[in-house]
Hints:
- The structure holds 2 protein chains of 2 kinds.
- Chain A contains 9 helices and 8 strands.
- Chain A is an alpha/beta fold.
- A 6-stranded parallel sheet of chain A has the order 2-1-3-4-8-7, with helices on both faces.
- In chain A, β7, α8 and β8 (about 165-170) form a beta-alpha-beta unit.
- In chain A, α2 packs parallel to α8 (about 145-155).
- The N and C termini of chain A lie far apart (about 50 Å).
- By secondary structure, chain B is an alpha/beta fold.
- In chain B, about 45% of the residues lie in helices and about 20% in strands.
- Chain B has helices at about 10-25, 40-45, 60-70, 80-85, 90-100, 120-135, 145-160, 170-175, and strands at about 25-30, 50-55, 75-80, 100-105, 135-140, 165-170.
- A 6-stranded parallel sheet of chain B has the order 2-1-3-4-6-5, sandwiched between helices.
- The two termini of chain B are about 10 Å apart.
- The interface between A and B is medium-sized, with 37 and 31 residues.
Amino acid sequence: MVAAEGARLVMDRRAAVAKLLDARNDALVVSGLGSPSYDVYAHGDNDANYYLWGAMGGAALTGLGLAQAQPDKRVMVITGDGEMLMAFGSLPTIAVAAPLNLDIIVLDNHHYGETGMQKSHTGMGIDFSKIAMATGFADSGVLYNLCEVDTLCETLNSVSAGPRLYVLKVEAKNLQRALPPRDAVFIKNRFRSHLGFQPG
Amino acid sequence: MNLSGSSKKPSEHWSQDLYTVLRNADIRHMSYVPDAGHTALIRLLSDDSEVITNVLTTEEEGVAIATGAWLGGVRSVLLTQSSGVGNCVNMLSLVVQSRTPLLMLVTMRGEWNEFNPWQVPMGQATQTVLEAIGVIVYRADTAEDLLDIADQAATMAFDSDGQVAVLISQRLLGKKKW
C-alpha cells in the first residue's frame, strides 16, 4: 500500500499552489514553514500573505485565530505534512471552534523535505483527511492531480458549513527555494495594514 | 475553609473583577486549557456573547491562535496553568520574533503548599522558562495586586507590543481541595 501510494506522488506542488492562489480572490493566506512558504512566495508576494519561518505546528492555529477575528474573510492555510503532524491536536481544536471561513491545505509529500527527505507518518498510513472528518471537519479529501485541484478551487470559493481540510499528494522533490521576507515584524505590520490596522 | 464569610470560593471574588479588567482592555477572544484556579474566569468569558473562546488540546496552540487573532485585529488572552507554560516554549518564538502582543494569565502550582510533587518541577521553572524565551513576567501575590498587574500587563502587551505573562501565585489561589 505504501509503495503504491508513493508511486502516486506526482503532482507539481508549485503548480498546485499557483492554482490555489490564482483562485484566492481576497482570501488571507497563512503558510507553514519550509517549502509551503517558498511555494506561496514563488507565486508572487502579497500583503495578505503571512509566511511562517518557524513555530512549527502553528500554521493552522494562526489561521484559526485569524478566521475568528475576520469572519467575513476566507482564510487559507497552506502547509506541509510534517508541520501539520506537529499540530495534530489542532484538528480537534479547530473542529470544535467550527469556523465557517477556514480551509487547510496540506501539501503532502510523505517526507520532511527541509531536513533531508526523511519519511513522515503520512507515507506510513496516517491519513489527515480521515482524521479531519473524524474530528468533525465539514469537508475533506485527498487530491492527486492538478485537474482535481481545479475542482477544489471551485469548492474553496463556495460557502462552507465548517472548517475544511484537503490533502494534496505532491511530488517529493526539493525545488529551487523562493525565500519570502524573514523579518517577522515587517510581515506582521504589512499584513495588518492590508486589513486596515495600524502597524504595531 | 472560607476566609471571606460568603459561600463563594475565594477565586470567584477576584475573577469577576479580573474579567472586568480584561473586558475593559477590549479583550474579545480567549483560549484556555482548564485549570481549577481559572474556573470562574473561564465561565465568565465563555458566557459573554461578545467573546470568542477556544478550548485547546495543549497550551502552545493558544500562542498561535492569539497571533492570528492579532493579525486580524482582535485582542486575545491565553489562560493556562504553570505546567502548560512548558508546552509553549518554541511556539512563543512566534510572538517574540514578530513582536506580536500576547497576554497570558498563568495560575501557579508547585510553589506554595503544594501536595502533588509532580507539579513542582515545572512550577519552579515557570518564570525562568518564560524569561528565557523573552516573555515579560509579572507576579501577583494578592487579589488587589492581580487586578492592577493584569490591567497594566494588557497595556504592556497590546499598546507596547509586549509578550507578557502574569503569574497568579498559588498562595493567592489557595490549596487545591480534594
